[in-house]
Amino acid sequence: MSDKTILLAHGSGGRLTHDLIREVFYRYLGNPLLNTRDDAAVWPLPATCEPLPTAPARLAMTTDSYVVQPIFFPGGDIGKLAVCGTVNDLAMAGAQPLYLTAGFILEEGLRFDDLEQVVASMAHTAKEAGVAVIAGDTKVVDRGSADRIFINTAGVGLVPPGIEISGANARPGDVVILSGPVGLHGLAIMSQREGLGFSFPLQSDCAPLNGLVAAMLQADAHIHCLRDPTRGGLATTLNEMAAQSGVGIEIQETCIPVPESVRAVCDLLGLDPLYAANEGKLVSIVPPEAEARVLNAMRQHRYGREAVAIGQVTTAHPERVVLQTPLGAHRILDMLSGAQLPRIC
Amino acid sequence: MKYLDEFRNPEAAQRLLARIHHRSTQPVRLMEFCGGHTHAILKTGLRQLLPPTVRLLSGPGCPVCVTSSADVDHAIALALLPGVILATFGDMVRVPGSGGTSPPTPLLMTEKMSPGEGSRSLAARMTGHVSSGEGCSSLQEARAQGADVRMVYSTLDALAMARANPQRSVIFLGVGFETTAPTVAAAILQAQAEGLRNFYVLSLHKLTPPATRAILDAGKVQLSGIIGPGHVTTIIGADAWRFLPDDYGIPCAIAGFEPLDVLQAVCSLVDMIERGTPGVSNDYARNVRSEGNRVAQGIMHSVFRVGAAEWRGLGSIPDSGLLLRDEYAALDAAQQFPVQVRPSQEPHGCRCGEVLRGVIEPPECALFARACRPEHPVGPCMVSGEGACAAYMQYGEGRNV
After folding, report:
1. What is the dihedral of CA B189, B193, B195, B197, to 10 degrees?
2. Which of A260, A263, A327 sits opposite B44 (nearest CB)?
3. Contact assignment for B385 to A338 by CB distance below 8 Å
């Protein structure tokens, strides 16, 4: 381990900048498109896209910025998050992610080792997700003008023909599927931030979900909605989809998997796991005839083993999410409008 | 054993509900004193499952909510003093005071202090002048105007803040009931033991039994029984509620915060009412003893004395607040930083006072869910996580499912 740190000169565009790009970014993220060192990456657009080679493909594009604090947390780090977040946003549109760009804002004094670890983690995660980082940018700002490292990633992907996924597509009678236990990322970050030091493991679920989505779409191409319940958690995501589609959603609380560790910490801190962030989970709304096929495909995948149906779409109470409590009562599950958690993604 | 799931078991809940339905013949109005209970009740939808004869009302048991506008204005005035760090639990930051009517006017206190008090003269030096602070209606706004207001999770965080900032005066805003007060008392003792000279407390602590008496004495709501606050009673002991059956002829059941805890308490209350034998039922025996936590009580009373306190919605109630004893005057922010606060008013149209007394339910207030929402609260009951209005909003109570 060296005590080398990032200097303002690393962002000057001069020799130190080139050294940094070569020693860190090319070293870990290098690929033919990035390695051209031109001002923009140029590549041919495939005229068609699997699985229907005769129909034209559509492009999907998204961007997100990552400012999580702390930058290293149990189960991941800001680099892994920056790849997963953008890959997952593409996947939630039914796209097959292809390429990412990465913009780094580094605070003067950031340890070189830390940057290297973050970039190595990005490379590792990109490899798992099957995407390449093909353009990038680095800026260094004065000490205090940023919090160690901020990353922006943008991503582009291809949406196969026949795939029509949108938060507006939920139909009455559809089934709501959740890919696994909720609350891990939010609570892992919070525990780490606040130095709560619990004796049990609480790890972020941060993971790229494009493989899981591909498996789901292969099982049934008629998935109506996909969304990853990140900030605001499951409750917020369900409300967004109910509002976008103009339908009601009814959820059975007893069906929602909540890890014991998450439940314990939430009880202790007075939080609700349904509002806690996730970075490796998705909610899918599918027509009833697709439920079994999609669930089966999800449970074969490492990121969907605990997938479960948690509720239904209904014509009753449009744009509202209603939760059936374990006691059998019903109440509205609203968006979070009050207390804010620390920044967690 | 998981020790939580037992108290959330749906089958056991059904058995208790069946018993309540079977036993309840006469209409009863039960008040859950504690905001934590209001949340537990609304979160599980428990009200819908009770027979129509049993009505649950929210009480004043949210420490942030019952803090008066004048006390919030006082805290804002302290926060605006130069050199002061005001440390507070998070909810208090957003609680509205009297709406921007009180630029603080500090008194010069150097004149009032004897030379011997020079060791704590930091406070005195701070009061020389004050930033204008025009129109700060909450600590959040004071912070936006440059006041150093910091959120803490415990009093110990505030102590650490005082150690780390020896040149500043750290004032901890002591808000809470008997549950919180012992921890603040312990921090005061710790500060004294360490010789920390820049740690102060503005004690706005309140006692729950006198507030319950005040509600019953006012007679506005006819209550048939009280669901006693589980955490408060862990400290003060179940016997502290004997006055309810003895003086008012109504039963009290001390409850924990899981669905089964609350159902068990409702069941006990209905039983006692139907039998006509009011008493105190300890339904949170895994935490609460009849005499309470003697150690915590001892620490609390060694640092604080009982005095009058101003409650939002209930007015001034004698012997319902905790003030620092004279021995700890040097740590008492109220004495060490005298500021003048103009007479305060409640926010216009806000009916938090009636909500806190159980006179109305939140949706009966014209501002509820309209002008007053969690993202822009008018009254304190919409601010605090324990507030009844915030709970009604969060769980959609009063809105059709």
Report:
1. 0
2. A327
3. yes
Phi, psi (degrees; rounded to nearest 5) at B168: -110, 160
For residues B352 and B379, give the distance between their C-alpha atoms in angstroms, rounded to a whole number. Answer: 6
3-state DSSP helix/strand/coil % of chain A, to nearest 5: 35, 25, 40
B42 touches chain A (CB under 8 A): yes
Q: 3-state class of A289 per DSSP?
A: helix
**Cα B354 from Cα A10, distance rounded (Å):** 62
Beta partners for A61?
A: A156
Distance of CA B143 to the CA centre of its chain: 23
- Chain B neighbors of A260, CB-CB under 8 A: 2
Q: Boundaries of CATH 3.40.50.11750 in chain B?
A: 5-26+33-61+230-282
Q: B394, B399, B400: which to substitute to probe chain A, counting the most A Cβ within 10 Å?
A: B394
pLDDT tens digits, residue range B360-370? 999 999 999 99
Residue type present at position A191:
S
Question: What average pLDDT does the structure give for chain A?
Answer: 92
- For residue B122, pLDDT over 80 is answered with no
- Mutation pick from A332, A334, A336, A341 vs chain B, by most beta carbons of B within 10 Å, is A332
Element (H, E) at A20: helix A15-20
Fold of domain B69-207+293-340: Rossmann fold (3.40.50)
Domains of chain A: 8-159 (3.30.1330.10), 175-332 (3.90.650.10)
Q: Report the residue of chain B nearest A335, measured CA to CA.
A: B394
Q: Please classify residue A166 by burial: count the beta carbons closer than 10 Å to its beta carbon, then call 0-12 exposed, 13-18 middle and 19+ buried.
A: middle
What is the CA B319 to chain-centroid distance, rounded?
Answer: 16
Q: Return the HEC string of chain B.
A: CCCCHHHHCHHHHHHHHHHHHHHCCCCEEEEEEEHHHHHHHHHHCHHHHCCCCEEEEEEEECCCCCECHHHHHHHHHHHCCCCEEEEECHHHHHCCCCCCCCCCEECCCHHHCCHHHHHHCHHHHHCCCCCCCCCCCCHHHHHHCCCEEEECCCHHHHHHHHHHCCCCEEEEEECCCCCCHHHHHHHHHHHHHHCCCCEEEEECCECHHHHHHHHHHHCCCCCCEEEEEHHHHHHHCHHHHCHHHHHHCCCEEEECCCHHHHHHHHHHHHHHHHHCCCCEEECCCCCCCCCCCHHHHHHHHHHEEEEEEEECCCEEEEEEEEEECHHHHHHEHHHHCCEECCCCCCCCCCCHHHHHCCCCCHHHCCCECCCEECCECCCHHHCCCCCHHHHHHHCCCCCCC
Return the structure tokens found at B168.
Answer: 């500043």
Q: What is the pLDDT of residues B263-298, one digit of tens each?
A: 999 999 999 999 999 999 999 999 999 999 999 999
- A263–B44 C-beta distance less than 8 A: no
Does CATH place domain B5-26+33-61+230-282 in 3.40.50.11750?
yes
Residue B27, pLDDT above cutoff 60: yes
- Interface confidence: ipTM more than 0.95: no
Inter-axis angle of helices A78-91 and A210-219, nearest 10? 20
Helix (H) or strand (E) holding A243: helix A233-245
Tell me the C-alpha distance between B224 and B250, whole Å.
6
Contact A329 B4 (CB under 8 A): no
Whether A119 contacts A136, CB under 8 Å: no
Please list every residue in chain A whose beta carbon sits closer than 8 Å to the beta carbon of residue B399: 332
What is the per-residue burial (b if ≥16 Cβ within 10 Å, else e) of B159-170? Answer: bebbeeeeebbb
Residues of CATH 3.40.50.11740 domain(s) within chain B? 69-207+293-340
